[in-house]
Design a protein that fits this description.
44% helix, 542 residues, 4-stranded antiparallel sheet, alpha+beta
């Protein structure tokens, strides 16, 4: 699946190396004055050349016209490198810092020279000139003109200065990787760039807020609400039995009346987010079957009385626990065209029916019914366990002092959750990769993050708490479990012919396993300590 617009990962530099360039400086300029003079003269006299076959600037420009640093290392600078830049740290807020970075003129010149020599290597042989004597004006022309050449020179300086500046600036700060961005205006940098002068720019980055516990996570009290009882389980099994009977039953076309309870209709179904015209995958389908006896979303009740060929429009609000996460709680405009209408003639559910159609597994109708009842009850127990996990996470977060969270963290996790929700749709076969690809837009992602911001922040705070709990409870990962999980993940990537970096994958899998282990420990702890209250299910009308 191709995710659009670079929404789910910050791109590293995509600049190709210039043809024939080894990256080794070839210092031919004897003095700074000569270099600066030649540069100024070349820029003043050279028209912009069309088509640059050399490198493109390795920066991503955001919507406000500022450069976002991509792929820079934050490793500490070596002593000799640290002297190449001056850095002043400023506190902008509790979670945001900025660095004023100044690159001395000598360092600017060094990377100007490097750019020139790399471009000489990419120009190739030129009649009448030794490779190291090709005029700067020709190099600029081959690069694409003065503006392109300036961009390449600035790029070299920034690529060299950023890791050094970040290495100095983040000392003693809980730096959030990949949150750094150059906020200086690129046009202004280009306008003021001079290889004989220093270059100054500003970098902003986010820091992780400190974690402060107001009370112990061991003392949390939680409550969960049962989602049904024996009566609701029995009703669900009756629906399953009806589906089994329909497999062996007969349908008759209805032409002399509209849809009524007990019928089945074949419809063209379109669910669209309110105000949108894009049909939602997993909900929209041509020639879909609508059963008036099993109508969890309320489609059938809006079609009662409809006849073949009739089109109806109505709104439906999807439940908050709808099986497709992306559409949970959404209000949809629904368009339904009723194509065909059928009534059912069903066999009786008795021992003879079971022996004939399910005799290899069950000997009587009672046995089959009890089996379905047990499965339904277990599904309800599983849902309760999932609910317990959510309320425990919320209770742990309530033990923490409220803290501001950087937008970069919120957006990063929101992007990950959004991507996961779309991939889940593909894995569950409720949507094709092509259908899901249409959802990978800036607008859809931003709406997803906006709508779920509180939930995302809760998840982030719990993720931060996991490390504290892991260390406090002296938990450890089982080495074999980690090895097995990584091996399985590698197989999945290789089967999909996807690239991966094994060390990063191992770290990621390890963090996921720690998260699961901490959550399971918390659930076991509150359950064994009688810190869970289960509220019995009650009908909505009660």
């Amino acid at each position: 699946m191709q995710l659009k617009s670079g929404l789910f990962a910050r791109s590293a530099s995509s600049r190709p190396a210039p043809p024939g360039c080894t990256g080794t400086p070839n210092r031919t300029t004897s003095s700074l004055n000569v270099c600066a003079a030649a540069y100024s003269m070349a820029l003043a006299t050279m028209p912009a050349a069309a088509g640059c076959a050399s490198r493109q600037a390795s920066r991503s420009v955001n919507r406000t016209g500022v450069m976002a640093a991509a792929g820079f290392s934050s490793a500490p600078a070596k002593p000799e490198q640290a002297a190449e830049v001056q850095v002043v740290l400023h506190e902008l807020s509790e979670v945001k810092r900025s660095l004023d970075v100044t690159v001395p003129a000598a360092t600017v010149r060094k990377y100007f020279d490097k750019t020139v020599n790399e471009m000489r290597g990419s120009v190739g042989d030129m009649p009448g000139f030794r490779k190291d004597k090709i005029p700067l004006s020709i190099i600029i022309q081959q690069c694409g003109g003065p503006e392109k050449f300036k961009q390449l020179c600035i790029e070299e300086v920034l690529n060299a200065a950023m890791p050094i500046a970040m290495g100095q600036g983040i000392k003693g700060v809980q730096f959030i990787p990949d949150s750094e961005k150059i906020t200086s205006n690129i046009q202004q940098l280009e306008k003021s760039f001079d290889p004989a002068k220093s270059l100054s720019f500003t970098v902003e980055f986010d820091r992780a807020p400190p974690l402060k516990w107001l009370k112990s996570y061991r003392d949390v009290q939680v409550s969960i609400s049962d989602t049904g009882n024996f009566s609701t389980d029995t009703a669900a099994v009756n629906d399953l039995v009806r589906e089994l009977l329909q497999e062996q039953g007969h349908q008759s076309v209805v032409r002399d009346r509209g849809l009524q309870k007990g019928d089945t209709a074949i419809v063209d179904l379109k669910f669209m987010l309110e105000g949108s015209k894009l049909p939602l995958p997993g909900l929209s389908a041509d020639r879909a079957r609508v059963d008036t006896n099993i109508d969890p979303l309320g489609v059938a009740k809006n079609l009662i009385g409809a006849t073949a060929g009739e089109v109806r429009h109505f709104k439906i609000s999807l439940p908050d626990d709808y099986r497709i996460e992306l559409w949970q709680g959404a209000t949809c405009d629904v368009e339904v065209k009723l194509r065909e209408l059928f009534s059912w003639s069903l066999p009786q559910f008795n021992d003879e029916f079971v022996k004939e159609h399910h005799g290899q597994q069950f000997s009587s109708a009672e046995d089959l019914f009890k089996s379905l009842l047990g499965t339904t009850a277990m599904q309800r127990v599983k849902a309760l366990d999932e609910q317990l996990g959510e309320v425990v996470k919320n209770a742990v977060v309530d033990c923490l002092e409220p803290m501001p969270l950087p937008d970069s963290l919120v957006f990063e996790l929101g992007s990950t959750l959004y991507r996961g929700a779309m991939l889940d749709m593909v894995e569950k076969k409720v949507a094709t990769p092509e259908e899901v690809d249409k959802l990978a837009t800036d607008a859809m992602l931003e709406e997803y993050v906006k709508k779920r911001r509180d939930y995302i922040q809760q998840q982030l705070m719990f993720n931060m708490a996991v490390e504290d709990i892991w260390n406090a409870e002296k938990m450890q990962l089982d080495a074999k479990d980690l090895q097995d999980e990584v091996a399985m993940r590698k197989q999945e990537y290789e089967a999909a012919k996807a690239e991966y970096e094994e060390t990063a994958m191992t770290e990621h899998v390890g963090e996921q396993m720690k998260h699961v282990q901490v959550l399971e420990w918390l659930k076991d702890h509150v359950s064994s300590s009688n810190q869970v209250t289960t509220i019995p299910w009650a009908p909505e009308s009660a």
